[in-house]
Design goal:
The protein has 84 residues and is mostly helical. It has a domain of 43 residues. Helices cover 58% and strands 0% of the residues. It is built from three helices and no strands.
């Protein structure tokens, strides 16, 4: 996605959200609890073995990328499409 398209998309999203917020009535009463919130911590197990394995693999890949970035300072520019 080029920068101009990304900027237009961001502007469109910002305008949409601004209009939505202005139409939504906001009321807040600090003395009244919000009962739709889930209990903390959740009763369901959210850190399954698969999630933990994927997290470990992602962490390893990011560490390798960081190491490559230390070797090549222009890597960030290459990843963002600004490299020549």
């Amino acid at each position: 996605m080029d920068n101009a398209l990304l900027a237009r998309s961001f502007e469109h999203t910002t305008r949409y959200l601004t209009k939505l917020i202005r139409r939504t009535p906001m009321s807040f009463d600090p003395d009244r609890p919000y009962d739709d919130l889930s209990l903390v911590p959740p009763k369901a197990e959210i850190e399954s073995k698969l999630v933990l394995k994927k997290t470990t693999a992602a962490n390893k890949a990011l560490a390798e990328l960081k190491g490559a970035g230390d070797l090549n300072p222009k890597l960030l520019d290459l990843l963002q499409g600004r490299g020549k």
